[in-house]
Amino acid sequence: MSHTAHIPSHRKPRRSASKLALRAGVAGGVLSTIAVAGAAGPANAEPVTETIEMPTLGSLETDLASAVSASAEASQQEALDLSLQAQEHGAAQKAALDAKKAKAEADRKAAAAKAEAERAEKARAEAQQRASRTQERTTLSASSSGSSSSSSSQAATGSAAAIVAFARAQVGDAYVSGGTGPNSWDCSGLVQAAYRQAGIDLPRVSSSQSSMGTSVSLSNLQPGDILYWGSRSGSYHVAIYVGGGNYVGAQNPSTGVVERSLDWDMPSGAVRIL
User: Fold this and answer.
1) Which class would CATH give 155-272?
2) Which of 2, 185, 190, 198 is the most exposed place for a label (fewest CB within 10 A)?
3) Among 240, 238, 103, CA closest to 163
């Protein structure tokens, strides 16, 4: 007898065929059938079988590929939606900007049209004033020709005499805008100072001075009347009628205070305060 006949083997027991088949089924992705028989059952007992379906590696790869594809499609769709939203937002901003530009252009054209209409109206008013002055000049010239003796002898009296005397005494003084004397004047400053000699206080500016008193025709002037150029409530120049068809006024920086004939620069109208 061999000395090693009764020595137990230290090798690991061999795996059973059923366990090897089970592991092979999992690794290879095949369906394995495990038959389990009762060890203590009768010899003629029917074997009990159980079928376990395991996923194959191929199906896992397919599912993973499908999931990746679906995710990529979702990302692409989201990117497309964002792009469309950006395009819509950009289009809305451009439309708003275009509308703003169109409104600004319309406003500019409207303002230009209004300014042109105002210029036309002003030109029309000036043309009417020139026509009126021409008519007044014609009437005044005819009146002067018919009664030259009475015009030349027309003389101021009372308060009018004091106003006329003061105005004529300033002839030769300088014209200075805003001047109120004693040696430099502007048009309304001279008129105001002259009327002060008669104890009458007038407003400082020409438009207010020409708005006072009563309106008189240029063909019916008296010494001391205030002549104005422009509209009565919006005159830009005033002077004092001194008789004989003449007036005294602070004209401009070039001429200073002068005595002129009405024909030299026909006024727009006159007012009488005395």
Assistant:
1) alpha beta
2) 2
3) 240
